[in-house]
Amino acid sequence: MSLVFGSCQRSRSLPEIRVGLIVSLSGDIPEVGQATINAAQMAVRPINEMGGLQTGKQRRLIKLVIEDSLDTPQGAVASAQKLINQEDVAVIVGPQASRNAIPVAEVAEATQIPLISPWSTNPATTANKRYAFRVPFTDLAAAQVIAQFARKDLQATKAALLYDITRPHNTTSADVFKQAFRTLGGEIVADETYTPDNPADNNFIQYLTRIREQNPQILYLPNYSNEILVQAEQARELGIEAIFLGTDAWVTLSSEQLSDDLEGSIFTSHYAPDILEPEARGFVEHYRERYDEVPNDVAALTYDAFGLLFQAIQNQGKADPEAIREGLVSIKDYRGVTGTIGYQRGGDPVKSVVLLKIQGGQFKFERLVNPS
Fold first, then answer.
1. Largest CA distance in the chain
2. How far is CA 349 from CA 135, 175, 179, 257, in A?
3. 168-183 vs 98-111: helix axis angle to the nearest 10?
4. CA distance 32 to 354
5. 77: how many CB neighbours lie within 10 A of its CB?
6. Cα separation, 90 vs 98, whole angstroms
7. 3-state secondary structure of 302
8. From first to last of its 372 residues, what are the pLDDT tens digits of the chain?
9. Do you find a cis peptide bond into 95, omega within 30 degrees of 0?
10. How much is the pTM?
11. How far apart are alpha carbons 258 and 249 in whole angstroms?
12. Signed CA dihedral, 190, 196, 199, 205: sign only
């Protein structure tokens, strides 16, 4: 069922810009879907309260049409097809996770409907496509940064990996990390993979035991937060003292989940609320007031996705799919919550990478790495 938000009773007669929003409200990461909805509604509300977005000589309201992907590729594709064929959307924001965004990007490309993924970092989402865009940096950039940090800043010479081999985000991050770490003179002493569909893989002891035998200084876990909690706990129970490193998927960990097992871990992220530029602080304050929590990177990236969309429409003065695509391509220096965003390289922005450290049960800013 589609959930529709955005029109006002007093302005129903005004023409609308229909925006599809694909989210994961079911499955392993419902918090990601909810953060996406929160930020989307927060971005749309003030536009509609002002009478809509200016396009040419008229204002047009933004109508959100929300579909639950069920956090499966099949569900995400079905959502996209419904939004395009039945709901007549001009653009799609989402999906979030790469495993869902990649097949939906194929649908968007085939139907020539622009797509903006607010969280997908796998290169395949935008590769060889004209209509697929993303807001975050890619897995390639993030994995290279964390490998360089491990080798040069932490002075690690031996690293191990444990990751889900079925998910694009996990495998791409792992492959790039291994290559980058070796290029910098490090050694990969253990490379353990698992599949979540195998009941035996609900327990990671067998993999972690082999990792422990190699005594790595670093354990790279490019997995999603629901698995990280178990992996960290079991690793510490086995006596593994390696520093855990991770990806932006870790940001969905709540403060209540940041146990002593994860203390000192470092992962890549898209923004840090405590180092925001002044113009972005308003977003954090408004989000906190409205939802009683600090926005995570999914929320921040979604908010930027809508800011980019609105900018693209205003640049063109039109809101048809082709105008939106052309408007996005023309953006070079949009100042968003997660940094300055432009599309000099197709659908992938050139952006900084933030490193966050888990310390005292909180995420702490560690370092900002600018693109080279």
1. 69
2. 7, 21, 23, 32
3. 110
4. 19
5. 18
6. 22
7. helix
8. 455 544 333 334 458 999 999 999 988 889 999 999 999 999 999 999 999 999 988 899 999 999 999 999 999 999 999 999 999 999 999 999 999 999 999 999 999 999 999 999 999 999 999 999 999 999 999 999 999 999 999 999 999 999 999 998 999 999 999 999 999 999 999 999 999 876 455 689 999 999 999 999 999 999 988 899 999 999 999 999 999 999 998 988 888 888 899 999 999 999 888 776 776 788 999 999 999 998 999 999 999 999 999 999 999 999 999 999 999 999 998 989 998 899 977 899 988 899 999 999 899 999 888 766
9. yes
10. 0.83
11. 14
12. positive
Q: Which of 174, 176, 28, 170 is nearest to 98 (CA)?
A: 170
* Token digits of residue 108: 């968007």
Structure tokens at 354: 């933030």
Pairing type for strands 91-93 and 115-117 reads: parallel
Say which DSSP state 303 is in: H
End-to-end CA distance of the chain: 45
**Mean pLDDT score of the chain, rounded to an integer?**
91
Rounded to 5°, angle at Cα 309 from 139 and 140: 10
Q: Are 289 and 73 in contact (CB under 8 A)?
A: no
Q: How far is CA 262 from CA 68, 160, 208, in A?
A: 31, 16, 16
pLDDT tens for 247-256 read: 998 988 888 8
Say what angle helices 278-291 and 297-316 make with each other, to 10 degrees. Answer: 120
The whole-angstrom separation of Cα 278 and Cα 58 is 32
Backbone angles phi, psi at 168, to 5 degrees: -60, -45
Measured in whole angstroms, how far is the alpha carbon of residue 219 from the centre of its chain? Answer: 22
Q: How far is CA 158 from CA 175, 181, 212, in A?
A: 16, 9, 12
- The CB density around residue 292, as the number of other CB atoms within 10 Å, is 7
Residue owning tokens 């903006």: 116
Under a CB-based contact definition with an 8 Å cutoff, are residues 338 and 270 in contact?
Answer: yes
Cα separation, 231 vs 223, whole angstroms: 10
